[in-house]
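step 3/5: co-fold with manganese (II) ion
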Amino acid sequence: MPADRVQERLDALFAIGGGQGANRVGGTEGEQRAHDLAAAWMAEAGLAVEVDGAGNLFGRTREPGVLLGSHLDSVPQGGRFDGALGVVAAIEAVERVGRGAVVAFRSEETGCIGSTAFAAAGPLPSCFLELHVEQGPVLERLGAPLGLVSGVVGIVRGEQVFEGTGGHAGTVPMADRLDALVAAAEYVLHARATAAGIDGAVATIGRLEVEPGFGNVIPSRVRLSVDARAPDAERLDRLVTELGLQPTFRLEPVGTAQKPREALRAALEERALTVVELASGAGHDAAVLAAAGVPTGMLFVRSLNGGVSHTPDEESSPEDVALAVDVLADALRRLTA
Ligand code: GLV
Ligand code: MN
Ligand code: MN
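step 4/5: write tokens
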């Protein structure tokens, strides 16, 4: 049964890498094994399989104008659905409809590397659809299985480096210290206060590298990562300025396009589902394509457990997933009729 096949494929992807949760970080063997599995499933679906110069994987029908897909890389100890669901569902929908094409983009979690290369190289599809788990609590709280994405937040990422003076943990008086980790800690609190002061903004320091990183040595250098997000360009710019950040990555805030949104809406309404519109706080390959001018639509599946994501506890029900695949296929049918 197709619905069981979707669950089996999600299980197969989740099992890659071993250990806790999904372990298919971009550029690792885990991501490659996932691409190999997806290539076999695309071939099984009768699609013409191709890999582009950036390593993105495509499976095309004879009418490949509308592209569906997502990414197969994960964060370390990630969830079962993030990215994987969008690729598995796309294969299912394209096989059912017999039109369109599937893509598995490379390294989404590390900065949408594959989709950015694809958007720069072209040719671009006539439309892009991405199915994804919500990764938040909105649909669960509303009791709605699916949601129509109105737009995706803007994201900037960068690094900050703090220099101090190393020394002996036992002999340098507190008043004489220049501890790089203390400066970094103050910055972490500044980032929290800054984001809290801008409506809808968030900021996360997810990685700290402390040098020399030894228990009885005063830290001499700290490098930390900054991930900051806001719903519109004005608030994103304000965040960048107030954080003193020189972004190495920027994904503009984007809206979804009317045509794919209406196709998804019609597919939801045909099933008598309430149409819940919501914005995405997570970044997506869909946002890269939308920013490149591709008419883009996104469908969210309800996340359970309060919407937890980027952890092994990420959960969505098989019933919601099966419904989402039906809606995705229906939208593809409408867009290619
Ligand atoms: C991707 O999951 C992101 O929003 O960072
Ligand atoms: Mn994702
Ligand atoms: Mn993710």
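step 5/5: annotate
The longest helix spans residues 318-336.
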